[in-house]
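for the recovery benchmark. tokens below, seq after
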């Protein structure tokens, strides 16, 4: 079974082909100033569950960006291809790359899988079937989990 991660050529080059998260933390605490929707998915205090919710909604946050140690993936190649080739509001397209990740190797390299549909009551993009990958050390994902990197075009 595989997971896929789509990145624009720009991001791929910036990270030198590594699967690099935006940050090194995978917990979050919500504050009264956050624009929250009623949900059984959100908990009091700082926790990983809140990080899963925030990770998928971070593009909506305007006051502060959540710099997650998680990396978004999907079991659907075409959704990863979409993310690799469409930037911003889908009005800009570009060439990109899709990483093919062997899901069977994740435990060996101490990478947790956070299956969004199992943890979040109302996923932002349910069609993605998003799986957030988090390395034990909260850094790059091991390159050993990538079995192929495919160049894709819009």
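predicted aa per position
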């Amino acid at each position: 079974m595989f997971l896929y991660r789509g990145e624009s050529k720009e991001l791929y080059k910036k990270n030198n082909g590594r699967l690099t998260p935006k940050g090194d933390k995978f917990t979050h605490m919500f504050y009264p100033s956050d624009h929250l929707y009623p949900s059984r998915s959100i908990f009091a205090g700082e926790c990983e569950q809140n990080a899963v919710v925030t990770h998928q909604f971070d593009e909506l946050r305007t006051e502060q960006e959540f710099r997650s140690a998680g990396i978004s993936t999907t079991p659907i190649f075409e959704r990863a291809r979409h993310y690799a080739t469409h930037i911003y509001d889908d009005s800009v397209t570009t060439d990109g790359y899709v990483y093919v990740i062997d899901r069977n190797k994740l435990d060996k390299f101490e990478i947790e899988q956070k299956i969004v549909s199992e943890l979040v009551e109302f996923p932002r993009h349910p069609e993605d079937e998003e799986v957030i990958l988090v390395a034990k050390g909260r850094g790059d994902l091991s390159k050993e989990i990538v079995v192929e990197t495919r160049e894709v075009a819009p």
